[in-house]
Amino acid sequence: LNSHYVKLTSSTNDLAKELAKEGVKDGTVVLAEEQSAGKGRLGRAWQSPGRSGLYFSVILKPEVSPMEVTQITMMASVAVAKTLERAFGVPARVKWPNDIYIQGRKVCGILAEMAAEADKVRFIVLGIGINVNQSIEDLGMLEQTATSLRAQVGYIVSRAELLKTLLEEMDYLYIKWQQEGFDPIKKMWKDLALWIGHTVTVSGLQKTWAGEMVDIDEYGALVIGFADGTRQTFYSGDVSLR
Ligand code: BTN
Fold this sequence. Notes:
By secondary structure, the protein is of the alpha+beta class. It is built from 6 helices and 12 strands. The longest helix is centred in the last third of the chain and has 22 residues, at 159-180. The radius of gyration is 17 Å and the shape is globular. The mean pLDDT is 96. Bound molecules: biotin.
């Protein structure tokens, strides 16, 4: 494994993108103790204080089209949820598109970014942020919606060991995905998913839709069924339980 560790960076995703442009190996990991400008989906910030969280990005260079990138982020969510369940016995669930929740609160977020030309992906940067050892006080205002592994299990967790176990699981699932395609990953994701069969709202930038969360499609997009029997596929947005 090729890895880069930095004490402080703005965002491991940005650093990983620079390294990827210089040309590094598939599977290179960029890890930071602290981020001064951690990024989330939809232009949000990701709180990244030193000592408590795990912030890293994995550079991947699969032979895929841009449409297939969501499959890889879902593979990563499955890896995180499975690792948290197996190693800590917590009921981790995935929330579309790629958040990990425990007991109704967010513990991990994933931000995938890619560089593509024509219809070919040059590289993917898979950024993963996990709240590990934040105390409830550290979570502050976020406490209503976020949690940490420590808040769930009641002890300080080794971030190094968590990272090691998680990378092993990701490695296993990445190879499985390359060999068998998205189907097995999709099945695992659905088994871990929140709210399938429930009425949810999907918020886009301008509009909010309400309907039943029916499925995810072969690209990982969200399929919502409406009361009038029609269906719509969503490629981005925020889902909440209605
Ligand atoms: C989200 O929930 O919206 C995604 C959060 C992703 C956070 C991780 S931390 C490591 C990597 N570097 C970043 O700047 N963001 C991701």
